[in-house]
Amino acid sequence: MEAVGKVLMAVGVNYVVHYAVMTTHNWMCLPHTLKEIGQSLFLTASPACSTLLTVGQHTQNGYAVAATTATVGLILGGLKCIG
Question: Per-residue pLDDT averaged across 18-26, rounded?
Answer without folding.
Answer: 94
